[in-house]
Structure formats: C-alpha cells, structure tokens
Amino acid sequence: MSGAGLKAPGAPSASKAWLRALELTAPIAAQPRRTLPVVIDELAATHGESPALLSEREQLSYCALAERAHRYARWALAQGLARGEAVCLLMPNRPEYLAIWLGVTRAGGVVALLNTQLVGPSLAHCIALAAPKHIIVDSELVGRLDGAAHAAKVWVHGADHERFARIDPELEPLSGTSLDESECPLPTLEDRALYIYTSGTTGLPKAANISHYRLMQWAHWFAGIMQVRPDDRMYNCLPLYHSVGGVVATGAVLVGGGSVVVREGFTASRFWDEVVRWDCTLFQYIGELCRYLLHTEPVASESAHRVRLCCGNGLRPDVWEAFQARFRIPRILEFYAATEGNVSLYNVEVRPGAIGRIPPFLVHRFPIALVRFDVEKGEPIRDESGRCIRCGPNEVGEAVGRIAADPSRPGARFEGYTGAQASERKVLRDAFEAGDAWFRTGDLMRRDEDGWFYFVDRIGDTFRWKGENVSTAEVAEAICKFPGVREAIVYGVVVPGSDGRAGMAAVVSDSEPDLAKLRAHLAARLPAYARPLFLRLTRELEATGTFKHARRNLAHEGYDPHATRDEIYFNDTAAGRFVPLDSTLYERIRSGGLRL
After folding, report:
1. Could you tell me the end-to-end alpha-carbon distance of the chain, in angstroms, rounded to an integer?
2. Cα dist. 62→10, 48, 50, 258 in Å?
3. How many CB atoms lie within 10 A of CB 519?
4. Taking CA atoms, which of 358, 435, 508, 576 is between 20 and 30 Å from 140?
5. Which domains occur in the chain, in start order?
6. What pTM was estimated for this model as a whole?
7. Which residue, among 330, 233, 227, 309, has the nearest Cα to 276 in the 3D structure?
C-alpha cells in the first residue's frame, strides 16, 4: 500500500483546512488585549483539570498551567520588571518552560529563549542581545553561565546553588489567581513577547522580535490547519526555544483544547514506543528526525499508534513517501516559514517534496515572489532600470515577501531583530517599484507551472546540520582563538544519507596543532552541532582578487582524501577524537555506512 494513498477516515478537504485557519485568525486583530496568556486563562475556565502539558517530570492541567503562569507574572512584578524589559530563559524541555514565559509576558516582560546547546562566547552574545534584567536557568545548566559574562541577576530553578538565588521558593507564597487590570494592565498584541534566536544566513545568532500578535497568529493558524480537537495529543520532542517546537507544536494544540507531551529530546529508538504509550494523535517533526526514524530497526509500535497527522518542515522528497508508508501516517502537513519573516507556505493539498502552494483566493494575503539571484554577489539581480527580475516557472531564485505598512495587516509586517542594522539587511527595497519593501528569506526556491514551491538551498555561508543553522563566521572565530591557528575557513559539505551539510574547516596553523586540545577547545565554545565534522590542515588558503577566501573550491573538493595533499581528519564522536581520514573511512562515509 502506497503511503501517498493513506488518508484519515473523513479527512476534510484542503479548502476546509484553509477556511478553518482563516476563521480562527480573523478575530485576532479586533481584540488587541486578548493575548496567548489570556487565552490560557479562558481555557483554564472551560477545560479545568484536563491535561495541558505532560512529561516524565511533571504534568500540568489547564488550571495548573494558568495558576503557575500567574505566579511567575507576580514574581516578575515583585522584581520590578518594567514593560518591555527582558528575562532570559535557559531550561531543557519541560512543562514549566511554558509556564515561565506565559507568566512573564503576561506581566509585560519579554522572554529571550536561549538555545540550551550554546556555551561560552556564543551564549554570552545571545544574552547581550537581550540585555536582560534577570536570567532564569535550570539547575542542570547553570554551569553554562560560567563562560558567559553578563550583568543580569541569575535565578536557579530546581535546586539550591551556592552563588545564585533559587526561584522555586519565591513562587510558592504568590497567588495563582488571575491578575486584574489594577494589579497589572494587560499587554497588547503590539507589545513584544519573546526573543527567538535565529542564525539566518550570515553571522552570529540574531534575536528576532516576536510580538503577542505573532504568537496568536501562529497558534491559531496551525490549530485551524491541523484541525486540532480537545481529544488530540501532540508528541513534541523538538526544542522549546525554537518557534516550531515552542510555539507551533505547543500553542496550536493548547488553543485547540488538546494536550502536549513535552519530551526533553529526540531518541529514535524510543520514539514510537512513547507515541503509543502517551496515546498521541499528532507529532511535530523536522526532516532529519524522519530520516533517523527510517534508519531504525522495525518495532511493533511503529504501526500500532493512533497518529492521524504529523506537521513540520524539511521533509525531503526521497524520505517522504517511504516514511509515510512504513509508519502508516495518514497525513503529512509540510510547511515553510521563517521565525522572523512574513513568508509562509503550507502543503495542505499534499504533494510529496513540495513546501506548499498558495491557493488563488489567498494570493492577496501571501504576497510572495521569487527573484533572480546572483550567487557570486550574494544579492538579487536587477535589470537596467534597477528593478528585481521575477523568476519564471522552475527558475531558482530568492523568496521574498511583501512588507505591508498597513496596520490592518499585521501578519505582513517584518518585526525585525534587536539590532536595526541586522533588520535592515533583511529588507529588499525598491524591488519592483519605487518605495516598496520586501523581506528577504535568504532561501532559494523554485515554483513549478502549477504554483507549487520547492526548497532549493540556503543563501550565504550558513549551512544547516542536525536541524540547526550553523554560522561559519562563529565557528571560524572559535577555531582562530586556538593557539597557533592563523586562518580558518568553515563551510558545509554534503554527506550521503544526511540532510543539510556537515561542517568542515580548512585551517592554517603555525605548527602542527594538538588535535586533542583543539577538540576540547571547540567543545567548550561551540554547541555539538556546530563543531566541524571534518578538519583539513593546509599550508595556505586561496583568496580571490578581492581578498575573499575561495570557499567554493574547498567545498567542491570536500573531504575526499584523493582531491588534495592536505591532511584531512574526521571528528569521530564515538572515539572522542579526530582520526585521519583515509580511503577506507572515506568510502564508509560516502556509502552511508557510518551513522553521523
């Protein structure tokens, strides 16, 4: 039986899915003080003790979630947190995570969702962008702050600490009842709620401004598209610090009255057993997750589940149908969206491999264009009159979305980052007419004759690995801080059987570097996904006439030991060291015989 032919009994038509999403999002702008914390209060009144968030550690009903959030709101007020001031949150996936940012944002604060894999300078950079008054850190992660300088007051959650105050006891005396206007005015949809970090295409992470409106739009739109019901249960093993795992997978199910199983991380061997044990009907994915599951040994639970739909992005064409058929998934909802942008696409009609299409009746709501792009210059091509050139069918170009200044269309805005310069770099001006402005996604796509969009690649030096964006500049900077290193170029290389690109670094050093110490050096400064998988030791780096490194030639040669006389090493995580990459190891990697 073909996976593409699977269909849930009575599955609604695509037009009904679009209609539900429109109906749920249409009233948002008309109620400027009805934010997600307010919606959770409403749900607590109607759903009471029904489960909202579930995990191995803890379980919160709708009432308990609302009460916990109210205590965090009163904690923020007691600390004198002013409207718009930031609190950084560094915590593994758990129900408490949602309660914290719902509460702090109800008090008017902004919560910066820190990536739990960051260490040292990169973590310090992200904290600095938010300029927080307070940092809430889980006791398991408090050591991460040692190498991240900041001036904020630190509160530890979960255990006593010799240096920092513990936040848990501070909450217990506080009331869990709803806050009234006299105690704290409600924030508005226009107010900032979160900072969510994104690497984009170049440079260190940027903190994207996420308004209360954006949270409401995401949650209600996906609730409509997925047709979330109170008897639905979402299995979510994606990071809560990302927009997909932290807002789409959680917010959409909560506003629909369902419940969310919050898993601390993804484990392929336990995935289906847990889906069955928690009786989940939905799960959220990224493409790499699906590929990992396909590589697991068959288990009885993989076809004994009640999953009716999975939702996510990055599901490759070569995985889609095999994944759907083997695991008997009735419906896959693939989508494309940028955390900070105004471009979104949804594969509601279901075409394997596509990221979505825009039905004719919604073209005015999703003004998207593909423009011809100069890969060498890294910018859109303009004609003789200085205007961008729209791509024809199946022609690859950068996807851009029209930025509307119309206050009645908040979904078409670009809310930007904490830095004005970073925000401006994402805007394409005077693209098709004088004075217009378009959000640059930094992604290359193509659109076929039927209007289906297909993802092609990321623009710039940043590449994607293990579901995360890796900044080449950040990795190169970390390498160059190692004693003796003079230059380093970081780039992505294709590894058969893996999504995205693995990191590779070409390094020029004054002498033969101590690879064990270099590996430890990088582990202290970079998250695991950003550490180079391949290392090339070279005498010199080729540069262009404008003194830019010839990165493309290096990427083309890749990690083939026959393509260069340079020494190439493989970061063997199982052995815990860099090992020489010889012909035998190279063939194992190229044949997909080595799990990375």
Report:
1. 31
2. 29, 6, 6, 10
3. 18
4. 576
5. 12-265 (3.40.50.980), 367-458 (2.30.38.10), 463-590 (3.30.300.30)
6. 0.84
7. 233
